[in-house]
What we know:
Layout: H1 4-33, H2 37-63, H3 83-110, H4 114-144, H5 148-158
Helix pairs in contact: 1-2, 1-3, 2-5, 3-4
This protein binds magnesium ion (MG).
Amino acid sequence: MLSKKIEDALNEQVNAEFWSAYLYLSMSLHFEHAGRPGIANWFRIQFQEEQAHALALVDYLNARDAKVVLQPIAGVPAEWASVKDAFVATLEHERKVTAMINNLYAMAEAEHDFATRQKLNTFVAEQVEEEDTVRQIIDDLTLVGEDGTGLYQIDRQMATRTFTAPVL
Ligand code: MG
């Protein structure tokens, strides 16, 4: 059985993952509207990934016979000055999520909740991947700068991203 503290913290993480999903859907809609369909596609898939993160935690809470309580999802920004700005905001956000996962991990370890700690291992690995991917995209965007042809190429490339459910 989960402690109340871990149960509450995991419920908070569920909300945070849904907030991330909402943030990336907002970015997707912004770039769809701005005529960048490839970037919009990339963020739409990111939206799906975040929903998968939330549902993996929901499934874990259910498996541990804990109660999942869905809280309101806070509002998200709707405008970004550039493609690079959105990816910089994404990296900043993912670093916050990594800190949240680390806190959860430390909590599970302190309570000798080994099952929760093991579940979180996949999330720790997932965060390394998320941050690395976004950093590489920022590097590419820095390289092309304001060059229209470069941005067009990146947009085309991002149009090819497809959703693969993360194994959590
Ligand atoms: Mg996530």
